[in-house]
Amino acid sequence: MPDIVVVYHSGYGHTQRMAQAVADGAGAELLPIDAEGHLPEGGWERLAAADAIIFGSPTYMGSVSWQFKKFADASSKAWYAQAWKDKVAAGFTNSAGMNGDKLATLQTLFTLAMQHGMIWVSQGLMPSNTKAALRNDVNYLGAYSGAMAQSPADAGAQDMLPGDLETARLFGQRVAQVTARFRQA
Ligand SMILES: Cc1cc2nc3c(=O)[nH]c(=O)nc-3n(C[C@H](O)[C@H](O)[C@H](O)COP(=O)(O)O)c2cc1C
What we know:
Elements (H helix, E strand, L loop, with lengths): L3 E6 L4 H13 L2 E5 L9 H7 L2 E7 L7 H9 L1 H5 L7 E8 L6 H14 L3 E2 L26 E4 L11 H23 L1
Parallel strand pairs: 1-2, 1-3, 3-4, 4-5, 4-6
The structure holds flavin mononucleotide (FMN).
Flavin mononucleotide binds next to α1 and β4.
Pfam families: FMN_red (PF03358)
Cofactor: FMN
Organism: Tepidicella xavieri
């Protein structure tokens, strides 16, 4: 089994639920960034040991949350040591709008991974984009660069749509499969 860590921030629990679905698919450990932008004790060592790191953040004002950005800036220490070079990387986000500029968040996560010399994994699912498409189809949001979920602004984390959570689970599964192939190489 590849060693995969999902490092994420969630202000109100929605991205936390998505992170859990990604981790379920990947067989990964969850590493939450707290309300002050800090990792739990031993978090940096955990990331240094992983084969793959999956980054997750809600989309706030068209980008990652400030807590995730604080973590990203603090990862410059790992960058100096090239500690994450050649690890597999991937990203996911959740926001209230159908679009809501989620792609900008995924691109921020992608750029962070590229700065670290990591290897990015896409969503890898066909979009559900025909007239017959239903909101609970897998990849209804039609993302390619990573996994996306959408939670209406007045919906609690418990109301997250099963289709988006299944999309997240399949995304985690794909990251695990790709990571396993890299470990064999
Ligand atoms: C400060 C702030 C900024 C937000 N900006 C956006 C945004 O740019 N686009 C969007 O679609 N939703 C936006 N939202 C809505 C959140 O993305 C949405 O509520 C999400 O489910 C929160 O995830 P969380 O519970 O993991 O924090 C914003 C919410 C907050 C609190």
